Amino acid sequence: MARTRFVGDAGLTARMTTVMFLLGAAFVALIVVLMTIADSGPLAMLIGVAGLAIAWFQWYNSDTIALKAMRARIVSPQEAPELHAMIDRLCALADMPKPRVGVADTDLPNAFATGRSPKRSAVVVTTGILRSLTTEELEGVLAHELSHVAHRDVLVMTVASSAGIVAGMLARGSQYGAYLGGNRRDNNNGLPVWLVVLLVSMVVYAVSFVLLRLLSRYRELSADRAGAHLTMNPRALGSALQKITGEMNAIPTRDLRGAQPMNAFFIAPAVRGVGLRTLTATHPSLEQRLEQLARIEAELGRPTQ
Asked: Most buried residue among 50, 72, 141, 189 by CB atoms closer than 10 A?
């Protein structure tokens, strides 16, 4: 975690380290399996290099990719003076570098942070959320997003997704089978090579999917905690989350589907309803988040001994 005044989170650091280790091990296992099956050494090396290249590309261009995905533009202090002033205050309070500030022109009420480091980051809000929230609520949302930058969990989420991307690409490609030898059997005269690759790739993809969802849900709770402690106003963040979630129901289904690839990075997922207690959810349920914010509010209201 970058040195800031955001509250630290040893649990988040441990989870990010564990996820990176397990996904790295799963990716190495995938390469080893490819190298051990018949005549697949060169292919395994090619896939390994491709995986590293994808991870590097994701790391280096994470901010650009996210901005383009949401068709967001970087705005100057002259274009959005109030938004910049709010982020200036929060960055000064948190003692962290100021990220670039972006706006996405969409009715979807949301916000996200992106970037490979605190000095190469951006915080983006939509025009929908700017219209919906009060100043205090928006400040709570921005503090939440800035904590993602300080915790560097956006970077970990971006890089960690590379194993799943490679496994998914390989699983789709192996279905054709031909470039892996068609119906040729593995060294044990068992399943066809392409089917072995498909099965292993699916396992790696499934492991990546589950681990990233678990990390995503925890990092959102961590950002809620850090943002609430920075602003000392957890109630405002809770009110913002309720408004955002409620207004999702008014967004056309087509627009929600178009934004869903960014769900893991949004402050609230682009879905209807609040019942998100599922294994595939990218966020904890609204109820869980509000309960945590209520506990923080109670703790902040207690007199010090």
From this structure: 141
How do residues 242-257 score in pLDDT, each as one tens digit?
Answer: 999 999 988 988 888 8
Of 137, 139, 145, 247, which one is the catalytic site residue? 145
Rounded (to 5) percent helix, strand, coil in the chain: 65, 10, 25
pLDDT in tens, 77-115: 999 999 999 999 999 999 999 999 999 999 999 999 998
How far, in Å, CA of 218 to CA of 224, rounded? 10
Strand ordering across the sheet containing 111-117: 72-74, 100-104, 120-126, 111-117
**What's the whole-model pTM score?**
0.87
- pLDDT at residue 61 is higher than 50: yes
Given the DSSP bridges, would you call strands 100-104 and 120-126 parallel, antiparallel or unpaired? Answer: parallel
Q: Which of 37, 15, 289, 60 is nearest to 188 (CA)?
A: 37
CB 122 within 8 A of CB 101: yes
Neighbours of 78 (CB within 10 A): 7
Residue type, 65: I
Percent of the chain's residues with pLDDT above 90: 48
Instruction: Give the chain's mean pLDDT.
Output: 85
Q: CB–CB of 182/192 below 8 Å?
A: yes
Cα separation values, 277 from 157, 290, 299, Å = 20, 14, 26
145 catalytic per annotation? yes
pLDDT-derived band at 39, boundaries 50, 70, 90: low
Show Cβ contacts of residue 87 under 8 Å, excluding neighbours closer than 6 positions.
98, 99, 101, 123, 142, 146
- The two tokens of residue 298 are 């109670």
